[in-house]
Amino acid sequence: MKIYIDPFTYEDPNEAVREFAKEIDTSCVKIEQAPRFNIINCLSASMLCLVGEFGEVCSGNLRLPGKREMFVAIKTLKSGYTEKQRRDFLSEASIMGQFDHPNVIHLEGVVTKSAPVMIITEFMENGSLDSFLRVSYAVFVSDLGQSREENSCSLPDRARPLIQLVGMLRGIASGMKYLADMNYVHRDLAARNILVNSNLVCKVSDFGLSRFLEDDTSDPTYTSGGKIPIRWTAPEAIQYRKFTSASDVWSYGIVILIATLRDLCLPLQVINAIEQDYRLPPPMDCPSALHQLMLDCWQKDRNNRPKFSQIVNNLDKMIPVFDSLCLCPPPVSIFLSWTAVFQTSPASVLWTSGWMPSRWASTKTTLPMLTSPALMWFPR
């Protein structure tokens, strides 16, 4: 089995870049001066104009000798960088260059011998998963609602959009299984760090927080500092700064939640409630098997969470079984369960009557909703 190496173990990190990333001549790269995607609408359309910790991402073209020109994503290092920032920026390329999996973003190469320093990857037409889910809500949901009301479609027709979504979740799990098999912990698995191509294939990206785990995968990675995506992170990782593949599994459970609640703006109290052992009811249109997978990912004891290999197997079994994907409106008790999460939470919550998420709306039911802008939050 191929062993992946932490680029920071090299005495000279530039050596890791040379070993794992292909150097590309700057003459082969052309950055788009007039991007074909509207930057203003980058959160609701195919795009790659995101500001990162060290650089900016834009689109461009790559033409290598003897190969066809391809559209690529280009991450450039911001001017005025320090040597440490350059080293950290290129370490992501050293990491990506060691991966070869259809559900992990592919590194085309780097430009290090001229300015600006670049990391060049494959282009993902549908952008990040969180943006894709926002703009594609109607695609996944409207047909389901119409068929449910008119009862004009067979069960396979009704379930197809959801099966497509489950297939995307399966791809994410497959990419994470690959990383876990290599004793590699991502530490920042979130919808914003999953990219979607034109065929709706999901690929794990953004390895800025990743750290290599040596030897035993049961030994956690300890971090003495750095930024942690609190709302996506397992309790033991937040409290003790201990990261394992099991903490990535917790984050994957949040990915499932966001995918199935993609039209709902979640307050921070939801994530706090999960950490305090409250378990949310299944969202509307969410199969019971998928909801149970969510709950399994949020086991308090990390040793009780499923491994990504198990998650992939579970999703493989789920996709062809249409009966498990039968869609039914949730009972009123589900809404009451959501209410109880906040009413019993130690956090102070403001409520108002007469509103509920649009996908759960009923002419016969009105329930409270969080209204304080400071408490409204949609995890990305």
UniProtKB/TrEMBL annotation:
Main subcellular location of this protein, as a coarse class: membrane
Subcellular location: Endomembrane system; Membrane
GO biological processes: axon guidance; regulation of developmental process
Keyword Ribosomal protein: no
Entries under Pfam families matching the protein: EphA2_TM, PK_Tyr_Ser-Thr
Domain Protein kinase: 43-322
Gene3D superfamilies, alphabetized: Phosphorylase Kinase, domain 1, Transferase(Phosphotransferase) domain 1
Topology versus the membrane: Single-pass type I membrane protein
Name of the top EC class for this enzyme: transferase
Keywords assigned: ATP-binding, Kinase, Membrane, Nucleotide-binding, Receptor, Transferase, Transmembrane, Transmembrane helix, Tyrosine-protein kinase
Substrates-to-products reaction catalysed: L-tyrosyl-[protein] + ATP = O-phospho-L-tyrosyl-[protein] + ADP + H(+)
Molecular function via GO: ATP binding; transmembrane-ephrin receptor activity
Example of a GO cellular component annotation carried by this entry: plasma membrane
Record EC number: 2.7.10.1
Name of protein: receptor protein-tyrosine kinase
Gene symbol of the encoding locus: EPHB2
